[in-house]
Amino acid sequence: MKCPVCPTIDLKTSKLESNLKAGKCHKCDGKWISSSDYWDWLDEQGEILPEKQPDSMPIEVSDVQKAKLCPECRRIMLRYKVGHGMTFTLDQCSSCGFWFDENEWEALRERNLHDEVNRIFSASWQAQIRQEEAQKFLESMYFDHLQEDYDKVKQIKEWIENHPEKDLIQGYLANPEPYTMSSSAYDQVREVN
After folding, report:
1. Distance in angstroms (rounded) separating the CA atoms of residues 146 and 156
2. What is the C-alpha to C-alpha distance for residues 154 and 157, in angstroms, rounded to an integer?
3. 178 to each of 169, 172, 185, 190, 191, how far by Cα in Å?
């Protein structure tokens, strides 16, 4: 099998974990794990370890962004974001296995995510990452526009969310002038009082 990053280099079999073999490239230090070997290793592992934060500075990875061919079937692999505070991607051949660029496996192991690689490629994991990215984008946009008032706005938002009359407050903020209310909204307000 040839390395997906260094196409002239043959992958050499090495031991990645106890009872988990991988094909390793001696030039780029990338690692190939077949799906069947990974599932067998997971079965032997037993309980999935809980995710943890790194004890020290995160391991620096070499996330090669070029398209990669599967070492086994030679089809283009798909790239998936890892998320959970990690900025690199993993490559997967849906039929054959997973490719880890230099130190990606080690970074996952440090966070106890190496036993959840299969979940990283799932639709629900990827949807959660997109939701987190959208939230960060909105936070950034609000901060850029509100700047020094941003913290005050966040405090007000939290106060409203925890207030027992939250719906009434939000209604007032959305439409403070009674004469601009529709007749049905005005009737609802009168029923409250």
Report:
1. 14
2. 5
3. 14, 9, 9, 11, 14
Report the alpha-carbon distance of residue 184 to residue 45 in Å, rounded: 61
- Residue 106 is encoded by which pair of tokens? 């080690």
- What is the C-alpha to C-alpha distance for residues 33 and 60, in angstroms, rounded to an integer? 20
Distance, in Å, from the CA atom of 65 to the CA atom of 62, rounded to the nearest integer, reads: 9
Tokens of 83: 């998320």
pLDDT computed for residue 85 by the predictor: 84
Distance separating the N- and C-terminal Cα atoms of the chain: 75
Record the pTM: 0.70
Closest CA to 117 of 89, 87, 77: 89
* Joined tokens for residue 115: 């036993």
Phi then psi for residue 32, to 5 deg, are -110, 130
Residues of the chain scoring pLDDT < 50: none
pLDDT tens figures, 62-82: 888 889 999 999 999 999 999
The 10s digit of each residue's pLDDT in 121-139 is 999 999 999 998 898 888 8
Residue entry with tokens 């004469």? 179
